[in-house]
Amino acid sequence: MEETSQIGAFLRSRRARLRPEDVGLTVYGTRRRVPGLRREELAQLAGISVDYYIRFERGRLDNVSDSVIDAVARALRLDPDEHRHLHNLAHPPAHDVPDSPRIRPGLQQLVAAVDPNPAYVVGHHTNILAWNRAAAAIFDVDFAAIPDAERTWAHLIFLNDRVRRVTAPTWPEMARRVVTYLRLRASARPDDTALHALVATMTAASDQFRYMWETHDVADISHGRYHLDHPRVGELHLDFEFLNLPADPGVRALVLYSAEPGTPSAAALRELTHRDADPAGK
User: Fold this and answer.
1) Which one of 25, 28, 172, 221 has the fewest CB atoms closer than 10 angstroms to its CB?
2) Residue 226 forms beta bridges with which residues?
């Protein structure tokens, strides 16, 4: 089963980033055949037998308890998102995700009403479900002209030259956010065939996506700041907030962007979003 191979790969990647001295273990000798912690060392830190941990890492998950998962997470110094990911891999949750999420009229009206502040609605696959004119303007792209299957942040960040050019100053961070979010979402929704198809498509289409995916890093997205370089107004430093929409099946969040008042970015955003131009700025 795929989850069992994923849990082994994830645990090995987390062991590899820790050195014995990082966790207070004494190292005897200098020759170590594996990077990071050995299985025996991790089992000692977690307070479980070596045989039990080896079976866990190999995906033999029958009757593994939450307390064991928590002990391993503490030993590996996992952050909350990584801890949740490990639980998902060990005890895959069941979710029914609609293939075609629908946007309520009231939500669509809200997205339109906040213009000229950039806003869009994003689904669980990083798919952009609704947007306003200002959101299209800041990324210098016509969302409406992009086929539904390709209107995802995975496609846009890794495969769309226009978006890559605008996001160049912060591209590594944005790309990593997309991949680590999808990795976390995939473990939370193991039966989501559309999500797994998206990942398969992206790993085949982008070497950069595939490299990031194989690191097994995971992280959710809630807020942050992006630095854009827009071809018409120059630099934009924009804060964003994810407002989760748990009552809307298939919909992840309403995402709102803003610039700090009184800054050059605020002036540039105002100039860009108040222009009488089409969404892609053509």
Assistant:
1) 28
2) 238
Phi, psi of 122 (to 5 degrees): -120, 145
Mean pLDDT of all residues in the chain? 89
For the chain, domain boundaries: 2-90, 105-273
The answer to whether residues 218 and 180 touch, using CB atoms and an 8 Å cutoff, is yes
SS3 98: coil
Quickly list H helices, 149-192. Answer: 153-159, 161-166, 171-188
Encode pLDDT of 231-247 as tens digits. 999 999 999 999 999 88
CA Rg value for the chain: 22
**CB 54 within 8 Å of CB 39:** yes
- Which positions ≥6 away from 255 have C-beta within 8 Å? 119, 120, 121, 122, 240, 241, 242, 243
Q: Which fold has domain 105-273?
A: Beta-Lactamase (3.30.450)
Structure tokens at 173: 């961070």
Q: What's the confidence (pLDDT) of residue 94?
A: 77
- pLDDT above 90 for 191: no
Q: Which of these CATH numbers, 1.10.260.40, 3.40.50.300, 1.10.1040.50, 3.30.750.24, describes 2-90?
A: 1.10.260.40
Measured in whole angstroms, how far is the alpha carbon of residue 204 from the centre of its chain?
A: 18
Residues in the chain: 282
- Residue 19 CA to residue 27 CA, distance in Å, equals 9
Nearest residue to 168 (alpha-carbon basis) of 238, 240, 226, 208: 226
Which amino acid, 1? M
Rounded to 10 deg, the angle between the 39-46 and 50-57 helix axes is: 110
CA distance 37 to 247: 42
Q: What are phi and psi of 238, to 5 degrees?
A: -120, 135
For residue 117, the model assigns a pLDDT of 94
Query: For 3-31, what is each residue's pLDDT tens digit?
Result: 558 899 999 999 998 887 777 766 655 66
